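Exercise 3.2. Students should predict the tertiary structure of the chain below and write it as structure tokens, then compare their answer with the key that follows.

Predict this chain's 3D structure.
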Amino acid sequence: MQHRTKTHLLTQEQILELLRRAEVGRAGTFSEDGYPYIVPMHFVHFDGRIYLHGLPKGEKIDNINHNPNVCFEIDEMLSLLYDGVENPCDVNSEFNSIIIQGHASIVEDFNEKNEALLKLVEKYTPHLKNNEMPIKMIKGTAVIRIDIVKCAGRYYR
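Answer key:
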């Protein structure tokens, strides 16, 4: 397999479009014992940040509190490329992917939490975007913000 990390880069517009349309991303954190922990999550990207939501307690929250360095990954496999291929090792795939490195924090500011949750509703359940969210739900939901330090999008066709 050829080394393509520098020659098959997505443009900034392609990265933003994939961030907009992707439904699931994978958040990678580090546990106190040093092991990585990866969890698939719904997300939204706005204001140059990634926002996630979930329960206010759990392994990812503990890990972020221990070490805020995170990785966030999105991918889409478009097809397998095997026409005319005789050797199984020569099969490839057409894909787009994004790998983000950043710093995660638990959002405490009510207005920022509310805005992130509204953007998540708009992305995943747009038919409910005009419904008011109960304050109790906003306060009881953990919102994680990832401030992006490094972002690389790659493709193969």
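Discussion points: The chain has a mean pLDDT of 94. Residues 107 and 117 are 11 Å apart (CA to CA).
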